C-alpha cells in the first residue's frame, strides 16, 4: 500500500473568540485639543503684557510715599490736638508743642523731618524732604507745606493740621 503524502503550504484559520483585554477610552477630539492650545497661547501672550504693565506701575506700587506722609500727619495731629496741650511755638521750619510734662519738637534737619521728645531721641518721620514750612492759621489750625523728592520728581503737599 502506498501512502500519499500531501504537502500543505497553508494552515486553515482557526477562529476563536478572544476576550477584549484592552478597554476602550475616548481620547481628546481635535476641537478639544485646539481649544486647549488656544488657551495656552492666550496665557503665553498675556505674560509680556502683564510684565510691562507692572514695570510701569513699579513707581506707584513700591516707591509711593503717601503712606509715610499719612502716618506722619496722624502722629502730628495726635500731638497737636491732645487735651493737655499748653503752648504751640511755630517758626518757619520748627514746630514745638508743650504738653503738661512733655515738650514735643518737630524740626527740619538734613533733609529729614525729625521728632524729638524732651530734647531726647531723634525719630525720623519723613526722609528726602527738600523743604518744610509751618504756618499758624489760627490757634487750632496749622498749615504744613512739604516739598519732597520721589525719584526724580519734586512733589509739594500742603497739610492742614
Determine the structural class based on helices, strands and strand pairing. Answer: alpha+beta
Task: Give me the oligomer status.
Answer: single chain
- Please state the overall shape, judged from the principal axes of the Cα atoms: rod-shaped
Order of helices and strands: HHHEEEEEEEE
Q: How is the main sheet built?
A: 5 strands, antiparallel
| Total domains | 2
Q: Low-confidence parts, pLDDT < 50 over ≥5 residues?
A: none
Describe the strand arrangement of the main beta sheet, using strand numbers.
1-2-3-4-5
Helix content: 25-40%
Number of strands: 8
Beta fraction of the residues?
35-45%
| Spatial gap, N to C terminus | 135 Å
Average residue-wise pLDDT: 82
Protein name: Competence protein ComGF
Keywords: Membrane, Transmembrane, Transmembrane helix
Transmembrane segments: 34-55
Amino acid at each position: 500500500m502506498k501512502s500519499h503524502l500531501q504537502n500543505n503550504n497553508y494552515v486553515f484559520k482557526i477562529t476563536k473568540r478572544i476576550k477584549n483585554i484592552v478597554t476602550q477610552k475616548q481620547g481628546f477630539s481635535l476641537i478639544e485639543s485646539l481649544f486647549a492650545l488656544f488657551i495656552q497661547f492666550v496665557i503665553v501672550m498675556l505674560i509680556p503684557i502683564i510684565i510691562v504693565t507692572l514695570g510701569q506701575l513699579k513707581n506707584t506700587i513700591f516707591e509711593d510715599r503717601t503712606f509715610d506722609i499719612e502716618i506722619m500727619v496722624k502722629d502730628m495731629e495726635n500731638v497737636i490736638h491732645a487735651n493737655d496741650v499748653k503752648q504751640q511755638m511755630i517758626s518757619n521750619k520748627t514746630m514745638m508743642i508743650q504738653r503738661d510734662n512733655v515738650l514735643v519738637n518737630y524740626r527740619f534737619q538734613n533733609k529729614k523731618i525729625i521728632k524729638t521728645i524732651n530734647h531726647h531721641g531723634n525719630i525720623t518721620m519723613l526722609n528726602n524732604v527738600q523743604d518744610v514750612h509751618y504756618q499758624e492759621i489760627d490757634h487750632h489750625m496749622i498749615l504744613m507745606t512739604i516739598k519732597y523728592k520721589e525719584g526724580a520728581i519734586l512733589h509739594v503737599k500742603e497739610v492742614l493740621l
